[in-house]
């Protein structure tokens, strides 16, 4: 089957020339005017190499009212066409889908992404293009690139005639991406749609898993809104508690049928979030809440002694919940001590299980802890970063728009420890 001709099948230099022409038409400029706006001679606007300098990319983005990243992507991402051609060679659509399933099960996210691109390029209808978009969103989420996952899930939702199951998979992708990116209103709204769509009909194992996840995501959104919408903080805590209890019960029921499944770890994560909600509702004091969290994560002394997986990751999230309790109810030395313990444990677990969402939370909370300490002491303590921490912050800045300002502040203030 032939590959559909797309923008990325155009040679790089021709793509750049077309962008320049598009800018000229958009602005109603002459060729001389567009050259002046781009800071080039009229005969040398497009370099022979087809590889523009950064100033040309920035000037084009301003001329076209485009994001600079989108201009860069339109110019430089032609390698995707070669990847797609290599993936398609000698394979049918069914074979590509089978290989994609195997890549997903084994966590080979880059390979899954390439296979999904190939599937979408030869998909004969909207239903298959929607499924390919789901697989690509899954690949991006697996690598912590939730902004890209969101974009692919949205593209899949725009396809016509997608089966109900595929639509639910795409809604799940949307909910997970919004949750990871801190889009609390959006994640809660999509989770509500999933709960509504799955409440009727046969309660198959897959459907029950989706319902449990939706209750978790909606409950997590309400939990985080306790701090972002303080005027209604108590109501958000109550809403979160109800949804988290529903999620925990659902996950416990699934775990009872399949012992050792990820559902058991998710039930444990829900239990930790409920400790935070209980503290927010006044069912236990902040000190008691912090103590319960400390006792729970105290079971994991050395993260390297535990297998990588959801169960270990759940302890990292308990540490995040402990930070929220401490920030709301403690101050001074008790706050600093609790936060130091919790952020350190969250960071250790995040690195062990390779969770970008947990890394972002750990760095954001540690930054907040240091700000509180500086405000209380009147002095700023030096933040030392080793190369691994520097690499993780750089990755989080690229993956989480909400973390970019915090991440750049950390990088601007920290001192980098060079290896001896």
What does this protein structure show overall?
- The chain starts with 11 loop residues before the first helix and ends with a strand.
- It has a two-stranded parallel ribbon.
- α6 (93-105) packs antiparallel against α7.
- The chain has helices spanning 12-27, 31-37, 54-64, 68-76, 79-88, 93-105, 109-122, 126-142, 146-157, 164-180, 184-198, 205-228, 233-257, 262-280, 286-297, 310-329, 332-353, 356-377, 387-399, 404-413, and strands spanning 384-385, 415-416.
- By secondary structure, it is mostly helical.
- The relative contact order is 0.05.
Task: Provide a compact summary of the structure.
The protein is mainly α.
Q: Counting H and I runs of at least 4 residues, what is the number of helices? A: 20
Low-confidence stretches: none
**Topology as a string of helices (H) and strands (E):** HHHHHHHHHHHHHHHHHHEHHE
Q: What proportion of the residues form beta strands (DSSP E)?
A: under 5%
Q: Largest sheet, if any?
A: 2 strands, parallel
Radius of gyration, in Å, reads 24 Å
The coarse overall form would be: globular
| Strand line-up in the sheet with most strands | 1-2
**End-to-end Cα distance:** 56 Å
Global structural class: mainly alpha
Find the count of extended strands (DSSP E, 2+ residues): 2
Average pLDDT, rounded to a whole number, is: 92
Question: Roughly what percent helix?
Answer: over 70%
């Amino acid at each position: 089957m032939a590959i559909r001709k797309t923008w990325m099948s155009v040679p790089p230099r021709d793509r750049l020339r077309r962008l320049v022409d598009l800018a000229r038409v958009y602005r109603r400029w002459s060729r001389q005017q567009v050259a002046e706006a781009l800071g080039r001679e009229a005969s040398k606007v497009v370099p022979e190499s087809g590889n523009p300098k950064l100033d040309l990319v920035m000037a084009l983005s301003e001329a076209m009212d485009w994001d600079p990243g989108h201009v860069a992507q339109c110019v430089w991402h032609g390698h995707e066409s070669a990847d797609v051609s290599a993936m398609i060679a000698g394979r049918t659509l069914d074979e590509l889908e089978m290989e994609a399933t195997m890549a997903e099960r084994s966590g080979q996210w880059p390979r899954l992404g390439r296979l999904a691109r190939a599937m979408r390029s030869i998909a004969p209808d909207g239903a298959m293009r929607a499924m390919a978009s789901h697989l690509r969103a899954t690949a991006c989420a697996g690598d912590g690139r939730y902004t890209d996952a969101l974009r692919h899930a949205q593209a899949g939702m725009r396809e016509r005639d997608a089966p109900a199951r595929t639509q639910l998979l795409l809604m799940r992708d949307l909910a997970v991406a919004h949750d990871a990116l801190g889009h609390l209103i959006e994640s809660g709204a999509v989770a509500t749609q999933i709960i509504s769509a799955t409440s009727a009909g046969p309660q198959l194992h897959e459907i029950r898993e989706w319902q449990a996840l939706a209750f978790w995501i909606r409950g997590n959104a309400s939990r985080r809104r306790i701090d972002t919408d303080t005027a209604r903080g108590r109501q958000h805590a109550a809403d979160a508690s109800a949804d988290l209890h529903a999620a925990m019960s659902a996950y416990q029921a699934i775990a009872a049928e399949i012992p050792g499944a990820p559902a058991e770890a998710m039930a444990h994560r829900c239990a930790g979030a409920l400790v935070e909600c209980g503290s927010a509702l006044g069912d236990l004091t902040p000190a008691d809440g912090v103590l319960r969290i400390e006792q729970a994560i105290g079971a994991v002394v050395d993260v390297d002694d535990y297998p990588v997986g959801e169960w270990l990751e759940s302890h990292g999230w308990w540490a995040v919940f402990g930070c929220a309790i401490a920030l709301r109810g403690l101050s001074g030395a008790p706050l600093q001590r609790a936060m130091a313990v919790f952020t350190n444990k969250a960071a250790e677990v995040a690195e062990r299980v390779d969770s970008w969402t947990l890394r972002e939370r750990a760095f954001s909370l540690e930054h907040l802890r240091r700000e509180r300490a500086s405000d209380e002491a009147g002095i700023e303590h030096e933040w030392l970063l080793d190369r691994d921490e520097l690499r993780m912050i750089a990755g989080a800045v690229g993956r989480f728009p909400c973390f970019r300002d915090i991440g750049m502040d950390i990088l601007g203030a920290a001192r980098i420890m060079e290896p001896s």
